[in-house]
Amino acid sequence: MKNRTLVKNLAALPDGPVTVSGWVETVRDQKKVQFVILRDESGAVQLVNPATRELDENADAGASARLAMTEAISALTHGSFISVTGDLKHDERVKLGGIEVKIGALEVVAEANPETPIAADSSLDKRMDWRFLDLRHPKQNLIFRIQTTFLHALRTYWVEHDFVEIQTPKLMASASESRAELFEVGYFEGTAYLAQSPQFFKQMAQPAGFGKVFEVGPAFRADPSFTSRHATEFTSIDAEMSWVESHEDVMKMHEELLVAGLTAVKAKHGAEIAELFDIELEVPTLPFPRIPLREAKQIVADRGYVIPRDDADIDPEGERQISAHVREAFGHDFVFLTDWDISLRPFYHMRHPEDATLTNSYDLIYNGVEISTGAQREHRIDVLVAQAREKGLDPEELEFYLDFFRYGVPPHGGFGMGLARVMMLMLNEHSIRETTYLFRGPTRLLP
Amino acid sequence: MKNRTLVKNLAALPDGPVTVSGWVETVRDQKKVQFVILRDESGAVQLVNPATRELDENADAGASARLAMTEAISALTHGSFISVTGDLKHDERVKLGGIEVKIGALEVVAEANPETPIAADSSLDKRMDWRFLDLRHPKQNLIFRIQTTFLHALRTYWVEHDFVEIQTPKLMASASESRAELFEVGYFEGTAYLAQSPQFFKQMAQPAGFGKVFEVGPAFRADPSFTSRHATEFTSIDAEMSWVESHEDVMKMHEELLVAGLTAVKAKHGAEIAELFDIELEVPTLPFPRIPLREAKQIVADRGYVIPRDDADIDPEGERQISAHVREAFGHDFVFLTDWDISLRPFYHMRHPEDATLTNSYDLIYNGVEISTGAQREHRIDVLVAQAREKGLDPEELEFYLDFFRYGVPPHGGFGMGLARVMMLMLNEHSIRETTYLFRGPTRLLP
């Protein structure tokens, strides 16, 4: 590897020779002195060079070299990757971290085109066209370092609790959720479909006797909508557990998992998040509030918001309202809305033992937006088939899935959660486009 | 959650009441006594019940209950999920772990169909039809627990070394590797393609200034072959790093990563692997042997095997031969074959500075089979475009990728590695079908 010092490690070094490598963020080419801000994956540092603008008559080789260096720095284009060896000096007057590096040798490793296609005020869509440049910004970079920490904490929680990681196939012979939002794939002489969720396959781990499983992987929805919360491809965080007694057991694991994730993020990135996002990240208290959906709708109505729907569902503004209520009443960013009407849930959700109009299910709302759906699943094959029929599904098309329940299966439940939504709400961003590495929508397949 | 004790935790408990829950592995229904082997995700335990076969004239309620229990146990079908409360007793004479549970109460949670569709001698293809039953076997279960440990150790290595996790899109506007093995997806009014690897997108993290990245996710190849090593969908383990000086830097990270993974697997599962797979797992020593491909082919030829190819490539038997040589000469299970001929490598591999017929690349062979390809990438846009043309590619079709190199990019390199192959070779299995949760091939999309 290139022998270099990461910018974040410079401050701890004594004055002396160092090599730093990264890209040119800005050049301030003043008459007597030149400043370059060099950024790498860990931070930014000021490089400095006393300018030599012309040679006098008796100029020696050293002066020629100094002129050449000055001209090389003047010619640096924004974004070029360079490697610089020079003298590190601690100097409290330097605003950027109290250090600077006096340039000794400069190597331009890859010169950038002089015209940068995006600027600070570019539209989100334009920034997405040039996502690899957009991601150079410290905020964008931090989002994905936070995501790394968050996911690792989730997986560590699962591994410590004896969950098994599975990789379920994304190519399927039939729909996993709804025929309406299904991508078709030409598959040799036939057709395959892209998995809309790992639902059926994570449930398969239950009759397989895996006990508890998790997966973090892509899911696909041929959803033509253009909201800030929808994508045609997204990263789904999924878990499923045997021997749950109701959706309460799923919620308990779910909230512990999120606390583990947010605790790790706050510990590692809390200061950076405060600096770049102006957010004091809170680790939520346990347990998260739980409100039955019908009760939540009453609370929203009492706040004066009339949900413009004829069915039992809530809408995005209703979710914001109930979140605001929970923040006021409990000081909490999360709320489980529980016990959804059967009309709003898929056939495989288990129904209440005492009220067959309700399911053992929940949605999790985080800062006003739904991030997850969880439920206990129906594991009794006769009930499952009846519920499928009731939803207008043909059990024959679901044969491979229904077979999972015919040879013994434990009671089970789990959830699916959208990673980009969690990140968006954690960092108060306004769209999952900001928290997705490369967003995919109905009109976006590039880069 | 169901209040139960995992089977693996029974041995440490004193004699007394316990509840165990799992599936019926076998019933031995003897005249005087009934034995049930119950298995859960952690192990198997013997349940015992003294049989009551008939009632005499003055039978009391207790006797009736005992008869009912005996009949319930006789009726148990293989695979049914049950929950049993009873008395744990340590007894050295019991072969299965020196413990048994005398059945007090038995609940059949989900009854299995009496005919089990697969048996111990079923073909691999038949077992795959009923994968959820096949996975109940202790060996299959262990494979995925090992995989969980392995992946977590890899990710922990990366996180500790400041890699950023990325989730790259699987829907693309063009091919990522070769037009030949591409799946087409109907995408609203147009067409998308499934990513054959995250190659272009993990490289994109380099001009984005992420430094070091990793991803574990699905990749898709419309490959019509039916070998033991190929699938149409597989889990790819990928990493990419900035500022490498050659493929040597990539190999160094790669071998450290594998040592971290195998160390964790041996520590957690070494004894089970010895018991179920009859393998004493070895943690390989560092560094792994490195042999230039041309030299490797000479070694294979000297061993008397003539590779039946006219080009510079090696073949599967050649890989087995060079592995055998490395095992004999260095006592090592791994070997890097380095410096592949440009004709065998994609356009984006960097070429040797001193020999333009060779690339800065490698394949990693594990116990005779290729598991990974790695390389330094060409980051100089003019050279990259020339190499693409040389391979007969149209740079216009690659515009979005080539743009990554036009606005500054550091030198970089990385590798892609097939998870199922690593698991297959670690456990001496004969096909990736055994080490894939749900295999996908040209004629297999179910379950």
TrEMBL record, chains A, B:
Molecular function per GO: ligase activity
Domain Aminoacyl-transfer RNA synthetases class-II family profile: 144-447
Presence of keyword DNA-binding: no
Pfam families xref list: tRNA-synt_2 (PF00152), tRNA_anti-codon (PF01336)
Main location: cytoplasm
Compartments it resides in: Cytoplasm
InterPro entries assigned: Aa-tRNA-synt_II, aa-tRNA-synth_II, aa-tRNA-synth_II/BPL/LPL, Asp-tRNA_synthase_2, Asp/Asn-tRNA-synth_IIb, NA-bd_OB-fold, NA-bd_OB_tRNA
Keywords from the UniProt entry: Aminoacyl-tRNA synthetase, ATP-binding, Cytoplasm, Ligase, Nucleotide-binding, Protein biosynthesis
Binding site for ATP: E370, G418, L419, A420, R421
Binding site for L-aspartate: E177, R221, T373, R377
Catalytic activity entry: tRNA(Asp) + L-aspartate + ATP = L-aspartyl-tRNA(Asp) + AMP + diphosphate
EC main group: ligase
Region (Aspartate), start-end ranges: 199-202
The protein's Enzyme Commission number: 6.1.1.12
Transmembrane segments: none
Assembly: Homodimer.
Purpose of the protein: Catalyzes the attachment of L-aspartate to tRNA(Asp) in a two-step reaction: L-aspartate is first activated by ATP to form Asp-AMP and then transferred to the acceptor end of tRNA(Asp).
HAMAP family in UniProt: Asp_tRNA_synth_type2
Family under the similarity heading: Belongs to the class-II aminoacyl-tRNA synthetase family. Type 2 subfamily.
UniProt cross-references to PANTHER family, sorted A to Z: ASPARTATE--TRNA LIGASE, CYTOPLASMIC (PTHR43450:SF1), ASPARTYL-TRNA SYNTHETASE (PTHR43450)
Name of the protein described by the UniProt record: Aspartate--tRNA ligase
